[in-house]
Amino acid sequence: MTTVLDRPVRPVVARLRRDRRRWAWALGAAAVLLWSLAGAGLFTGDVVNPGGTAQFGRFAAAALSPALDAGFLGLLASSALVTVAYAVLGTALALALGAVGAVLVSRTTWGRRRLGWLLSRGVLAVPRGLHEAVWGLLLVNVLGLDPWVGILAIGIPYGAVTAKVFADLVDEVPRGAHSALLAAGAGRASATLYGLLPPAAGGLLSYSAYRLECAVRSAVVLGMVGAGGLGYQLSLSFASLRWEQVWSCVYALSLLCLAADVAGRAVRRRLAAPPPGPGRDPVLTGAVVVPLLLVAWSWWYLAVSPASLVSARTAEQLAHVLGAAWPPATDGALLGSLGALAVDTVQMSVIAIAVAALGAVLLAGAAARPPGRLSPARRVGGAVVRTVLLLLRAVPPPVWALVLLFVLLPGVLPGALALGVYTLGVLGRLTAEAVEELDPRPRAALAALGARPVGAWLYGVLPGAAGPVLAYALYRWEVAIRDTVLVGLLGAGGLGALLASEIAAFDWAAVTTVLAAIVVLTLLVDLVSDRARSVMR
Amino acid sequence: MSTRRAARSGVLRSQSPLPPFSRRSLLAGAGVVLAAALPGCGRSSPVSQSASGSAGPLRIGAIPDQDPEVLQRLYGTVADSMSAALDLDVEYRPVTDYGAAVSLFRTGDLDLVWFGGLTGVQARLQTPGAEPVAQRDIDERFTSVFVVNAATGLTPSDDLAPLAPLRFTYGSETSTSGRLMPAYFLREAGVDPQGFPGGPGFSGSHDATLQLVASGSYQAGVLNKQVWTSRSEEGSVDPSVVLHTETPPYHDYHWLLGPRAAERLGVDDLGGRLIDYFTGLSAGDPADAEVLELFGAGSFIPTEVANYDQIEEIGRDLGLVS
């Protein structure tokens, strides 16, 4: 029997048209960027401090001479184990929460009940809106020095993000198998289990690997608030500005990230192109068994005990903090400053994302690994760019903020650029992957017709890459808002600086108010970026 | 063969990118994982131990202030010396955050903590029954120094007023010598401590303050005298940083003992024994000298709550103590 498709498989020629809404969004984005740069004082005065190049140079030069004495390396090795254990358990918790949460927030579950879907998404915004470091600081006050602090601080916000992404992945899977199962009389649960999960499995696994790499970096930030591990060593060396030791920590962290990245990539490749022949694929079997063993080892290594979560002391401390934190502070001075600081925060995040997106577009071509044979120069160049991106994201934002403050005058700009270079590290990687998945033929065709490499890139790669890059940038914008908490203090201002000073003063009522403001701001940015992304689709 | 059976036996494996797992291997895997995790129940964590349960050791900690890198990584020396002298198990627990140190003292995770003046007051007010134990000889007359970048052209003087129009940075927010007392002396001199063009910065540490003033990003800053002296002696202070003013003396760092330690450890008069231990450290004994040198002290002396009344009052004024 022949089946006739009711529509062509792929539109042969994309329709050329100008979308008015896109223009409106683009102009709006340009205006917001200009407004942010003006707010950072770029058009009104000096922002650069050439006198600090010596201090910046000392930081940069130390990259070539990291501390390598045996004692320090031993310390780093044992700290790295703690960081890995936190990252693994945090990710495991996030994936478990995400799997359950995804069921609760996916469109598949809610169907046409839009209000319920919106509400469930709103609930997720609360844990997602707070940075891991903030979760860590809050949890230290309730749980004290317990490994659960690190695990929950990673697991809770990541769980909320994972739930959202998992739900989106499952929702976007082709519905054929699912509908067929439902039509054949299968229940909704089994239809989802057998019709939606298998095709979504690749995306879910790939995202899980990405989360693990993020968790390693988060575990380091958490170390800075007292959870131990590499971050603890890094912040000790950072406090006395021993840059050689800071770089050793950064390199150790880069290696961990690289390991997570390489493993994730290997698994993704196998999923995309399974080897022919019967039998079980050893790589994929390993991808399931090794994480399970890692979770067990981490549980053992950190000596996690569920009992401390429900102990009387935990309940007592929780009551203490909640009692002090409720009702939130509502004095006029605090509420008044929230508005002005929120503006600073938004400007900081906008500049950060603009810097990161621009850098990512410029570097994506070099960082990507296109299929086929490459010239040795291209290989080396690609490896260098990828290493630089890895280091950009391995240096924690507070460190960037200080070293950039050596060469920039205080204000929004050092904080914004610190977030910008850090986000560039993340965005560059995501963009390179997006470029790898682009159709290589337009560029090849242009090159074959005699176009110069720049022209081939401009007309063959950029148009296709712009969409995914902007989508990722908009997604990272929300993350950047949360990250401003990390760089706020150094005269950069914003809600992060206010939060840090309220936490330092143990004014829990004011902390509640500031946290609420941050969550609302994150939610607003999420809504705006969601609208913008829907326009681009 | 029916489609269902084909699917079950894995012939239709192209449907799923994941390898098929038999129920037996899944169960076996889960069993292995559980078996591997179980021994963890009796193990002590490399990052911490649960505060509940048996008496355990005396848990000491310190806020990360001067030379946190040296202090924290070599703290084993202090723990060993104290353990030998008191005949108690003493365990050092690393903390890098001022606020976390105060919170952990409140929750009872830390029994004995080396606090700064302000953090000591915060911790004592949040933990009824906590008592100050000892301070260093230099803490009785601790001072801060205001430094300026040479490009400002300011010369050493006792007048703080010329600092008002400069870009200015404190150290950490709740540092006594890097924030609280300097803010107090600035206000005494008629300078708004929260003023300064663009608002004051918080560098995060004394060393960072020095570097930021050297770079010129901030034209002036303030740090504790001890760090200034030690960096000057090392010769690591950039020549572009010059001393402007030294503040009048005030009380700063001290050891604070939590209320629950004595009972939990079953040691009568733990506070008294700790005072004896600290004041008994002598520079003549090599082991003692090592501890004293770590703290940059000539000796330890007793202290009392009243020494920190001024700090508490200023902290309330600045909204840092509630």
From TrEMBL, chain A:
It holds the Pfam family BPD_transp_1. It comes from Geodermatophilus sabuli. GO terms for biological process: transmembrane transport. It is a multi-pass membrane protein. The chain crosses the membrane at residues 23-43, 72-105, 214-233, 245-263, 283-302, 346-368, 399-422, 456-475, 484-503, 509-528. Residues 80-268, 342-529 form the ABC transmembrane type-1 domain. Belongs to the binding-protein-dependent transport system permease family. This is Phosphonate transport system permease protein. Keywords: Cell membrane, Membrane, Transmembrane, Transmembrane helix, Transport. The lineage of its organism: Bacteria, Bacillati, Actinomycetota, Actinomycetes, Geodermatophilales. It is found in: Cell membrane. Coiled coil: none annotated. InterPro entries: MetI-like (IPR000515), MetI-like_sf (IPR035906). One of its GO terms (cellular component) is plasma membrane. The keyword Secreted does not apply. The keyword Membrane applies.
From TrEMBL, chain B:
It holds the Pfam family Phosphonate-bd. InterPro entries: ABC_peri_PhnD-like, PhnD, TAT_signal. One of its GO terms (biological process) is transmembrane transport. GO terms for cellular component: ATP-binding cassette (ABC) transporter complex. It comes from the Bacteria. Keywords: Signal. Residues 43-63 are annotated as: Disordered. The keyword Signal applies. Residues 43-57 have a biased composition (Low complexity). Belongs to the phosphate/phosphite/phosphonate binding protein family. This is Phosphonate transport system substrate-binding protein. It comes from Geodermatophilus sabuli.
